[in-house]
Amino acid sequence: MRIIDLSTPIDAEVWEPNPVVHKVMSCAEGGRHMADGMKERHGIDFDPSVLPDGELLSLDTMTLTTHTGTHVDAPSHYGTRAAYGTPRHIDQMPLEWFIGPGVVLDISDAPVGAVGADVLRREFDRIGYLPRPRDIVLLRTGADLLSGTPKYFTDFVGLDAEATHLLLDLGVLVIGTDAFSLDAPFPNMLERYRATGDRSVLWPAHFVGREREYCQIERLANLDQVPSTGFTVSCLPVKIARAGAGWARAVALLDD
């Protein structure tokens, strides 16, 4: 079995709209931290200098959102109410949703904005495959090449409501993208809204989640390295209680 990493990193050294703070307690600092804690909480004296090189364990502390790096959006991310009942948080979602046959749809030739169902249907015809229930559909936009730069958040293509409904009609429960969002970039949506006054152009793919239960995987990578079909996706989200999203180490599994 060959494993292809489909994830983008969480990196405090690159540009993010919500900056990441990453503080590292060194191994030496970890030894002193442990000794201070043992003294304070248990009254035990310990000299960390007896440890190898005076070091114990490092400790990383991070401040970030659950939407940093590759992550899975839960239904509760889309709103507090839904037509089907109370939206579930990420820790409540069935794990079976996040391991299954993968399908890559290449929409990288589309301009910045949102594509419709017609574009997806043409891609079904091109690859000779119609997604089936529980397939995990991944959209290759090519935006992952911009990851870590401001353009990653403004120059990509997403789905409109009709395209999202099409995939859900086929029984897909998880839709992924290598772009920042499954919707079009915010500046693009705002420009179209100001020009038309049509509210339906604002986050249509996300808001379909208020009508029908499904999950998104955003900020994937390396979709150009996997075939259109014939592989398995694993994108299990971190179990964060009452959260609208969870980080995931998404991978493609291919039989050699």
From TrEMBL:
<dbReference type="GO" id="GO:0004061">
    <property type="term" value="F:arylformamidase activity"/>
</dbReference>
<protein>
    <submittedName>
        <fullName>Cyclase</fullName>
    </submittedName>
</protein>
<dbReference type="GO" id="GO:0019441">
    <property type="term" value="P:L-tryptophan catabolic process to kynurenine"/>
</dbReference>
<dbReference type="Pfam" id="PF04199">
    <property type="entry name" value="Cyclase"/>
</dbReference>
<dbReference type="InterPro" id="IPR007325">
    <property type="entry name" value="KFase/CYL"/>
</dbReference>
<dbReference type="InterPro" id="IPR037175">
    <property type="entry name" value="KFase_sf"/>
</dbReference>
